[in-house]
Amino acid sequence: MTSRTKKKVSSQRRGLLAKVHIAKKELGIIDDDYRGILGREFGVTSSAALADRELESLVDYFKSKGWRPQKSDPPEADKGQRQEAQVAALRGRVRQEAEDMGMEARRLRALTRKICGMDFADWCTDVNALKRLAAAIRNIGDREAHYD
């Protein structure tokens, strides 16, 4: 198939085809048996020849045989909530690390400005920057403890 004749495949169709092949593998269905199912149930020899509704029916067929799809990634709202929780935890870790080593507020602010680009860690929403900040504070504390 050339790039000119290649049809655009919707993300829903790609997902259905992926589910079909994952189910086939997880159920341990060999190719001959798989082709037999396609022929018997749908009159085709390849899942690519199936319409989207038929692909959904094939997925349902595999479910009836005991296959259970794995949970996919959580919706974007859940990802946002997880990131907010991670940011809050990292901010707390930064505060705790600075407090544990007795870091002056002025020094913490300068370090935060250098690493996060802002004066206060509580303003930072960048997970990676907060991780770097916590690590930097811990490293400073370790170095200073070494010289005491």
Architecture overview:
With 148 residues, this protein is an all-alpha fold. It folds into two domains: 11-64, no CATH class; 76-147, no CATH class. Helices cover 67% and strands 0% of the residues. The chain contains six helices and no strands. The chain has helices spanning 11-26, 31-42, 52-64, 76-100, 105-116, 127-147. It is rod-shaped, with a radius of gyration of 27 Å. Residues 1-5 have low confidence and may be disordered.
Summed up:
With about 150 residues, this protein is an all-alpha fold. The protein has helices spanning about 10-25, 30-40, 50-65, 75-100, 105-115, 125-145. Helix 1 runs parallel beside helix 3.
